[in-house]
Design a protein that fits this description.
The chain is of the alpha/beta class. It has eleven helices and ten strands.
Length: 338
């Protein structure tokens, strides 16, 4: 059974053909990083306009690479939230029109569910139950996953998502957008213990908070540079130390919170997903924690951590075989709890 997935939730236009919810036949992603880089973050209006330009060629390429036609597609799965409302409108409108014209069933997928199920696209796959840590530019959430469609949120960020903090700190340091990859790279050259940035562990809860950490980096820069000098005047070694210390603080919180959930829920399987799951330090530290506590850690390949339509198709397959279809009245939602 082939599902065509479409994702335009943020700034990447993606389409994918997935077989039986687990085998990727094609997965095309058109990035907008070059467009938004000069602004230090995503400009929603520009993202929406680029989706309009790219959604048709990206879907065509996904079908072409898979070697299939629309007649062979069992259903179209589209992300209808959460995300940027303008971007979501493009994907949902296109998917509805496509399904109407081709007489193909439509399935609506929550973006967060897509991330949770992304580990099922590359072996080994987790058994139920497992803990799912979703860490991206828009989300930092921890779930107990009892089965397909059975997700219990344990905690979420109270302010900035981890990926958002990476982007903002990168902008403070003058490193550009997206911030995650460049900070990860510079952190390899720095000392993560050089600066004692705060960790908001929020005891007695599985919630996260990264706003204070971002502010601590800003205050540190001001203490060194004043209000007028740019971060580019710092020597390379200092920038490396700031990046490494910031990253260590983020990863410490993510790993520690996951450990608490393992103890509390007595679940010995953890899956990572979301763009920040591509971070080398987080992947390494989580695997080390798993080895110490005899916990199985499942981390998708890097290209399945960031936003992609394969995870939307994987989740859509589960909805489709369960008879959960969407109609022409489907509307996107910027805020859509799982």
């Amino acid at each position: 059974m082939l599902i065509l997935g479409i994702d335009t939730s943020c700034d990447d236009t993606s389409a994918s053909v997935v077989e039986d919810g687990g085998r990727i036949i094609s997965n095309i992603v058109s990035s907008q990083s070059d467009i938004h880089a000069k602004y230090g973050g995503i400009v929603p209006e520009l993202a929406s306009r680029r989706h309009i330009e790219m959604v048709i060629p990206v879907v065509d390429e996904a079908l072409k690479k898979a070697g299939v036609s629309l007649r062979e597609i069992a259903a179209v799965a589209v992300c209808h939230g959460p995300g940027l409302i303008g971007s979501l409108l493009i994907g949902c409108s296109f998917a509805k029109a496509l399904c109407y014209s081709a007489k193909v069933p439509l399935v609506a997928v929550n973006h967060l569910e897509g991330h949770i199920l992304s580990p099922f696209l590359a072996p080994p796959v987790p058994e139920f139950p497992f803990l799912s840590l979703v860490v991206s530019g828009g989300h930092t959430s921890l779930y107990a996953v009892e089965g397909f469609g059975n997700y219990h949120e344990l905690g979420r960020t109270r302010d900035d998502a981890a990926g958002e903090a990476y982007d903002k700190v990168s902008k403070l340091l003058g490193l550009g957008y997206p911030g995650g990859p460049v900070i990860d790279r510079l952190a390899q050259e720095g000392d993560g213990r050089a600066i004692d940035f705060p960790r908001a562990y929020l005891p007695e809860t599985f919630d996260f908070s990264f706003s204070g950490l971002k502010t601590a980096v800003l205050n540190f820069l001001r203490s060194r540079l004043g209000d007028n000098k740019p971060a580019s005047t710092l020597d390379k070694g200092m920038i490396g130390n700031i990046a490494a210390s910031f990253q260590r603080a983020v990863v410490d919180v993510l790993v520690r919170k996951t450990e608490w959930a393992i103890k509390k829920k007595r679940i010995k399987r953890v899956a990572l997903s979301g763009g920040v799951a591509a971070n080398s330090e987080l992947r390494k530290r989580m695997k080390e924690m798993g080895a110490e506590r005899d916990v199985k850690v499942f981390v998708p390949p890097v290209d399945l951590c960031t936003d992609n339509a394969a995870m939307i198709a994987a989740a859509g397959y589960r909805h489709f075989i369960g008879g959960d279809l969407a109609g022409p009245d489907l509307n996107p939602r910027a805020y859509l709890p799982l």
